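Support request, priority: normal
Reporter: lab tech (M.K.)
Component: structure prediction queue

Hi team, I submitted a job for C4-dicarboxylate TRAP transporter substrate-binding protein from Salinicola lusitanus yesterday, and the status page still shows it as pending. I've pasted the exact input below so you can check whether something in the sequence is tripping the parser. The sequence length should be 331 residues. Please let me know if I need to resubmit or if it's stuck on your end.
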Amino acid sequence: MLTQRFFRLTASLALAGLSTVALTGVAQAATEIRVAYGNQPGEPVDVAVKAWAKEVAEASGGELTLKAFPASQLGGETEVMEQARFGSPLITITAYSNFISSVPDLAVLDAPYLATDFDSKLKVFDSDWFAEQEKKVEAAGYHIVIPNTVYGVRQLLSREPVATPEDLAGVKIRVQNSPMYVAAIKAMGAVPTPMSLGDVYPSLAQGLVDGVENPLPVLYGGKFYEVVKNLNLTSHMHTVAPFVTGEAFWQQLSPEDQKILTETGQEMAQNLRTLVEEQTEKSLQQLEDAGVQVHEVDTAPFRERAQEEIPKAFPQWSEGLYQRVSNIIND
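Reply from support: The job had stalled in the queue. We restarted it manually and it finished. Here are the results:
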């Protein structure tokens, strides 16, 4: 009798063990990917990413999930990019200019005055030139999941009106701490002053800087209009940003999961563009309602300076790169 009980207990434990293994196998089959970005909850990127997560879960039957981490919860851009390169299961939005060290030519996509509208700029992502850059990105340890997310048109909010590059002589403009943004504002005629976005409002109030550039929703959201009242429509950058992961992690995903992320990612890019355009229009009206004076700007003199000065600032670029990419976009 004792022997029979022993065998029954042993059999039960074995079945329980098999069940645990089976459940573990199911749990392991589901892949969670963290999506990191610096944008705040409720901003277009945040709204678009959360909608993307729902699409991915539905398309994969719950076997592939995205978890949003807004407001730099996982660290700054450089830190998160390194996490991705070393194989962490995450995707992050970044700037093409952040590839300046690993794939220098790709940084040209953040150069000022390459395009006058997004439809033109998006043509570059179908070019042979961009396909060549993608291979270099993969060799550097990254994979571009979504290359073509519209981020916004960058404008200039300043203490005094700006109509020409000469109006910016000696004018201190806040920029993010990036070689491309420093070079862009310098090429436009101003004095670039790198600092974090969180320091801009008090710096404007104290006269440490005279202006700030960013897409309109950011300019309105930061309440900078309370201190400086001139919005100059310089449209110096039509910013398109990539969502990037690590090449090692990407290769661990099944072809089916790669396809889901790529296809739903393009739907997300379309959604984000719509959200950005709607928010930009709304922010322009809000700025006007707040008493900001809006100035149309002849961008031709700024464009001429950019075409001359930007290539000089990046000697590591291929010969004629700025003009080559400009031709792809504007032909």
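The radius of gyration is 24 Å. The beta strands are 31-36, 64-69, 90-93, 142-158, 172-175, 191-194, 211-215, 230-246, 293-296. Let us know if anything else looks off. Ticket resolved.
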